[in-house]
């Protein structure tokens, strides 16, 4: 009887061990299944976001992307993302297969939570090409209260610019063109270090003030009349003014250009001269400003976001339409 009881206890212990083992295997299988599902959703979401980028690039290369072949403006379909014929959104919550629930959206929300499709990099000031006077105006716009000339010299040294007319030796600075706009944060940190205690926060605050006005991807120092912000255009114009009459002409000319482009696409300098009702001083100043203006763009920023299941993915790319290549890619 005692022997039977011992055998029963052993059997129960073996059974308990087997139960624990089976439960462990089941949990492991469940974990592996969840990981596999998560990886599948992530891959699907990534491919979906990439599809959005490719679709946007294809659209930018089509005649349907712009209202006029001579200009790129903020009322074009690439900017507002609306089909002019159907009035439907072109790139908002696109579902590749009906009923799948997997969607991508091309676009972004501005500070007022307004939807925009793609943005024009040539609406921004290129840190690598603009003059010291424009850099000075940009930094002042970002809230640099003092030492603007010193910061301009740092920026010129950073991009190894021959316009730097003082001898400097800062081995910590890059001495090559800005590769991306975020490098400006490093430059600002170097500038503020030793001046204020929380120099890193200050550098970031200034950068956040400037990020919507600057780029490193446009092909020149020129900005697109049809897409540039009023603030950036005013900075470009003021940098060229050398006396009181030109300062006044720069301000009024900038306002007239913005008013004109808000009413209709500007297809060339001739449109400004014939339609903006310029004074003699404004016309003369336009001769100086014309080299800093363009009307059709080649470089665009594309933000593609997607979801597959519970997995979200965002890809930001900058596409050079003229040279048909992606010059920037970031995946989140």
List keywords for this structure.
10 helices; Pantoate--beta-alanine Ligase, Chain: A,domain 2; flat; 332 residues
Q: What does the model show?
A:
The protein has 332 residues and is an alpha+beta fold. The protein folds into 2 domains: 1-124 and 297-332, 2-Layer Sandwich (Pantoate--beta-alanine Ligase, Chain: A,domain 2), CATH 3.30.1300; 125-215 and 229-293, no CATH class. It contains 10 helices and 12 strands. It has helices at residues 2-60, 77-80, 132-141, 148-158, 183-192, 199-210, 230-240, 244-263, 269-275, 280-289; strands spanning 94-95, 103-106, 108-109, 115-116, 119-120, 125-126, 214-215, 223-224, 293-294, 299-308, 311-320, 325-331. Strands 1, 2, 5, 10, 11 and 12 form a 6-stranded antiparallel sheet that branches. It has a two-stranded antiparallel sheet with strand order 3-4. It is flat, with a radius of gyration of 28 Å. The relative contact order is 0.14.
For the record, the count of structural domains works out to 2
* Main beta sheet: 6 strands, antiparallel
CATH architecture assignment of the largest domain:
2-Layer Sandwich
C-alpha termini separation: 69 Å
Instruction: Count all strands and give the number.
Output: 12
Q: pLDDT below 50 for ≥5 consecutive residues: which ranges?
A: none
CATH T-level fold name of the largest domain = Pantoate--beta-alanine Ligase, Chain: A,domain 2
* Helix fraction bin: 40-55%
Q: Which outline best applies? A: flat
Q: How would you classify the helix and strand content by structural class?
A: alpha+beta
Classify the beta-strand content into a percent band.
5-15%
Average pLDDT score? 89
Compute the number of helices.
Answer: 10
